[in-house]
Write a structure and sequence with these properties.
By secondary structure, this protein is of the alpha/beta class. The chain has helices spanning about 20-30, 55-60, 70-85, 90-95, 105-120, 135-145, 160-170, 190-195, 230-235, 265-275, 295-310, 320-325, 330-345; strands at about 5-15, 15, 35, 50, 95-100, 150-155, 180-185, 220, 220-230, 240-250, 285-290, 315, 345, 370, 375-385, 385-395.
């Protein structure tokens, strides 16, 4: 059976550019959710998000043809490829799958806003070239010379995680021994306004699994991983971070925004990933939760975890309490966090968890990171439309 390993990581996050700042922020429990500076927020219920710092954005390669999100994606992808030590020939055979939703909407909003205010076309139509989510895969493949399969996954907040699952399947199926997979999203006005209108955003930094949680916080960023056939990685002397054992994907087929009240789809995704990995629930020591901080989603996820792992049967924490919900990038950023958790033997905390919900029985690692000898960990992502993805990673020896 083909084994799939992680050999490269790349990140742009609310902590800045690079894997090291990302892990440093997570492991220290430093919340990066703060007032938005990217656009006007006057009059909204929530005015905060996990925004990539302005100085970090200014340092990214500039291009009038590429959106903020494209620049995030290309920067993270370059770091992952360099980290993996791929040669030009290996890049030429590698494929890429990118999870994306917002595309270059931020730039299109700015174009339209200027035109509406002035009554004249600002003649910045190059912004329209990157509006589609597929632009991320286009720029990454072109700039890095990736000649294998190129795909874009649009699965709401599960997009980034699904890209890893599908990339691993291509390796197992023998299509290519190397894949670059990840997720990208930037803050946009339409997303910010929409979630405010739905009253799903907390005015304060989100607090997953807290008794007094009031909603989520938005975020932005990008993350990519290089996945390889284990034999190929060994042959070129690469040292894997972890092994991607399996994935489970399901759809609730219940409601456009609400999760199934009995968590049926989530449970299927989790149990399918365990079955594909040949594991029992007791083999998993840590779950990187979807953990949005909304009352309904946290309750549903906790119900699923309790049914699969038993009450208090596994350690759980939520990265979104630290960086916000980065939308299409969330599953990829949290997958990288899960890999780093195994690599460093340290579980990042759930921030802002001052009053644990008594109906959620798990140890959610409040406030402070915790040393751990966990060998197998799961990362969960659940999106609008009931789109569920569970990834299982095992620490590399």
């Amino acid at each position: 059976m083909t084994r799939v390993v992680v050999t490269g990581l790349g990140v742009v996050s609310p902590y800045g550019v690079g894997v090291q700042p990302f892990w440093g922020g997570l492991s220290s429990g430093r919340c990066a959710i703060r007032p938005i500076t990217l656009f006007e927020t006057d009059g909204f219920r929530s005015r905060i998000a996990g925004e990539v710092p302005a100085d970090a954005v200014a340092a990214l390669p500039a291009s009038h043809r590429r959106s903020r999100a494209d620049r995030f994606g290309l920067t993270a992808a370059r770091e992952a490829v360099a980290d993996a030590g791929l040669s030009r020939a290996e890049q030429a055979m590698a494929g890429v799958i990118v999870g994306g939703v917002g595309g270059g909407m931020l730039e299109v909003e700015a174009w339209y806003w200027e035109m509406a205010r002035s009554g004249e076309d600002p003649r910045r139509r190059t912004a329209l070239r990157s509006v589609l989510p597929s632009s991320h895969a286009e720029v990454v493949a072109h700039r890095l010379g990736l000649g294998g399969p190129k795909e874009t996954v649009v699965m709401a907040c599960s997009s980034g995680a699904a890209s890893l699952a599908l990339a691993a399947d291509l390796i197992v199926d023998g299509v290519t021994p190397v894949m670059l997979a990840g997720g990208v999203d930037a803050l946009t006005r339409i997303c910010f306004m929409g979630f405010n209108a739905l009253k799903l955003l907390d005015p304060d930094p989100c607090r997953p699994f807290d008794r007094d949680r009031r909603g989520m916080s938005l975020g932005e960023g990008a993350a990519f991983v290089v996945l390889e056939d284990w034999g190929h990685a060994r042959g070129r002397g690469a040292r894997p971070y972890a092994e991607l054992l399996s994935s489970g994907l399901s759809t609730d087929a219940f409601h456009v925004t609400s999760p199934h009240p009995g968590a049926e789809g989530v449970i299927r995704a989790i149990t399918d990933s365990l079955a594909r990995a040949g594991l029992d629930s007791g083999d998993v020591g840590y779950v990187n939760a979807h953990g949005t901080g909304t009352p309904q989603n946290d309750r549903t996820e906790a119900l699923a975890l309790a049914k699969v792992f038993g009450a208090a049967g596994v350690l759980v924490s939520a990265n979104k309490s630290l960086i916000g919900h980065t939308m299409a990038a969330a599953g990829a950023l949290e997958a990288v966090a899960t890999v780093l958790t195994l690599r460093h033997g340290m579980i990042p905390p759930t921030a802002n968890l001052d009053h644990p919900d008594p109906e959620i029985p798990f140890d959610c690692v409040p406030h402070t990171a915790r040393p751990s000898s966990v060998q197998v960990a799961m990362s969960n992502s659940f999106g609008f439309g009931g789109q569920n993805v569970s990834l299982i990673f095992r620490r590399s020896e």
